[in-house]
Automatic annotation (TrEMBL):
Stored InterPro entries: 6-PGluconate_DH-like_C_sf (IPR008927), NAD(P)-bd_dom_sf (IPR036291), P5C_Rdtase_cat_N (IPR028939), P5CR_dimer (IPR029036), Pyrroline-COOH_reductase (IPR000304)
Molecular-function annotations in GO: pyrroline-5-carboxylate reductase activity
Leader peptide range in chain numbering: 1-22
Family: Belongs to the pyrroline-5-carboxylate reductase family.
Pfam family for this entry, one: F420_oxidored
TM region(s), chain numbering: none
UniProt KW keywords: Signal
Ranges in coiled-coil conformation: none
Superkingdom as given in the UniProt entry: Bacteria
GO biological process, one term: L-proline biosynthetic process
Alphabetical list of SUPFAM superfamilies matching this protein: 6-phosphogluconate dehydrogenase C-terminal domain-like, NAD(P)-binding Rossmann-fold domains
Domain Pyrroline-5-carboxylate reductase catalytic N-terminal: 3-95
Protein name: Pyrroline-5-carboxylate reductase
Length: 267
């Protein structure tokens, strides 16, 4: 498997690392305007990742190319490489604000958008994909099979990207914030921070497995744990005092900020 990653910032370096760990026999070519970032990845995974100083090298070597760039940089790179791209190459953009329609104007390749999550660093979690109409079913299936090594691949419609990315890409930060508050509260009661983090992390892992495996849903978990008149029920009563519109406001805030970014010309 020959892969290319253009742009090795937070997302690009995370994807390159996740792919190198999950597919050690792959050949990954990385490019970044700052040579040091690309070279650092190659030094970390010398058998899998090779850094290059030219975009042409990435296009020539890779069957599938990840474009992990900001909107204006993405357009500039697509203008530069569009004429070199082959029809059978996968061109995978991690930029949600540039449409599939616009991306297709730059090339004849199979274009899609991928919204990864930090959880892919552990080859876990969900990555969202949006396919253009050029993709046939067998090609979509091949994409999902190829990328499933870094996590669960979930296909969505392009117009649904905001709410779905809140659930998969933003949510690790949201729930880490809640977990950190829980960790600090336990520390105030005498549990050292490292132990509290370990216990909460493994609890979250177990909870995720219960629900993802369809053993229980979230409601059933509550029913199973919160015995009437017990200590868990007492704790839940405190949680229910929180404003029930909290996550409504969280989702409204992300949608509002997305509109501000687009209206401000950062697209």
């Amino acid at each position: 498997m020959n892969l290319g990653v253009i742009g090795t910032g937070r997302i690009g370096s995370m994807l390159a690392t996740a792919l190198a760990v999950a597919a050690p026999n792959a050949a990954i070519t990385v490019y970044n305007r700052s040579w040091d970032k690309a070279e650092s990845l190659a030094d970390t995974f010398p058998k899998t990742i090779q850094a290059t100083r030219t975009l042409e090298d990435v296009v020539t070597r890779a069957d599938h190319i990840f474009l992990c760039l900001r909107p204006n940089d993405l357009r500039n790179v697509m203008r530069a490489i569009g004429g070199m791209l082959r029809k059978d190459q996968w061109v995978i953009s991690t930029c949600s604000s540039i449409s599939l329609y616009e991306l297709e104007t730059f090339c004849d390749s199979l274009v899609c958008k991928l919204i990864p999550s930090v959880t892919q660093r552990a080859n876990a979690g969900v990555a969202l994909v949006m396919f253009s109409e050029r993709w046939r079913e067998h090609q979509r299936n091949a994409f999902v099979d190829t990328l499933s090594c870094i996590g669960r691949i979930h296909t969505i419609a392009e117009e649904d990207v905001r709410i779905y990315s809140d659930l998969t890409s933003c949510a690790p930060a949201f729930f880490s914030h809640l977990a950190l508050s829980f960790q600090k509260a336990a520390h105030q009661k005498g549990v050292d921070m490292a132990t509290a983090q370990m216990l909460i992390a493994h609890m979250m892992e177990g909870l995720g497995t219960l629900v993802a495996s369809d053993i229980y849903d979230f409601t059933t978990v509550i029913e199973r744990v919160a015995v009437p008149g017990g200590v868990t029920e007492a704790g839940l009563k405190e949680l229910t005092k929180m404003d029930e519109s909290l996550f409504d406001r969280v989702l409204d805030a992300t949608a509002r900020r997305q509109r501000e970014i687009l209206d401000g010309g950062q697209h």
